[in-house]
Amino acid sequence: MNKLAxxxxxxxxxxxxLPPELCDSLxxxxxxxxxxxxRFGVYVNFDDVTLNDNTRAQKEKAWNEGWDAIKxxxxxxRTALENEFRVLLGQAANPTLQRTASGDL
Length: 105
Description:
By secondary structure, the protein is mainly alpha-helical. Helix content is 83%, strand content 0%. It has a domain at 37-76. Helix 2 packs antiparallel against helix 3 (53-93).
């Protein structure tokens, strides 16, 4: 949870450098991961042997749903972020791309 809070503080401070759509995706991802971390965190302090079958199943479900969210959504957002940086770096390194991006040819 601490690393997630650290990420969100960093992201919030630097979001001005990214397009609004990408910021929305990153923020949505952070909030979804936070929800899963909180849901699973309820069970962390309990040893599995002290849990009844139903509670143990809920703990496993919370873990699996959290992992599925991370496994499926992080790669998509990461790809979008990488693509945005490629565009920005390409434009900075290639004056032709800068003119094309601004509409001047």
